[in-house]
Predict the structure.
Amino acid sequence: MESFTPYSALLGGSLIGLSAGLLMLLNGRIAGISGIFGGAIAVVGGDRLWRWLFIAGLLLGPVIAHLIGISFVTPQVNVSMPVVIVAGLLVGFGTSLGSGCTSGHAVCGLARLSLRSAAATGTFMLVAAITVYVTRHLV
Amino acid sequence: MAKNLSAFICGLIFSLGLIISQMSNPAKVLGFLDVFGSWDPSLALVMVGALATLGLGNLFIFKRSVPLFDEYFHKPKHTQIDVRLLSGAAIFGLGWGLVGFCPGPAIVAISMGSLDAWVFVLAMAAGVALFWFFQHKIK
């Protein structure tokens, strides 16, 4: 547990909760990133601008973090490019089929005490943990 | 106008939350999912911070009948736990566990100079498009 970072985790998590609360209070929208992403790239249906601006905010984050002196490491992915592509396809398809990802189900849904989101969260956490177990300890 | 500005600010706050909690780093996420390795419980505390903040916020937000900049709260209508929800969550969990990226962190990591994140997000868009293509066959 040498890499455990409890304080930054709590602080960062609180900011995520604050963002989700503000988006619901101001715009009446769920801060589910897969839903926002899917709606932004949708060919049909209006109301895309706010979704693209939310994504622009996500993209600006590292720039602002750098300017105000919050350090971060450039993400390292230890798998080959084909695996990255397959994983991206699975995440895009799965979150569309299951109507949400970590933010929509595990944060916004659980905070509303939604049983549906609890079932989704339990399922993707379990499958992800099994996947990591298989790829790190069995293969 | 106000709606678009608030979406941008919320995206930025969300991004800073992911950066500070290091959830933008797949290695950190996989450290949580690797229950039988050197387990890093940080992600659980990110959830605690987010759920405490949003859960408390929701108590006040939903006392209102409407959000500030929209005519109603766009809350999810579905409540049923069905095969579609659980299979979608399982497919998402598999992709998440393979690389350690879920949608939000992957988008943020693009601005951290990660080529893998670019490829992942493009593949994710393709996954969403695949879902649209097959959507009428999935009931």
Observations:
- Helices of chain B lie at 2-20, 26-33, 42-61, 83-99, 103-110, 115-134.
- Chain B touches chain A through 118 residues (CB under 8 Å).
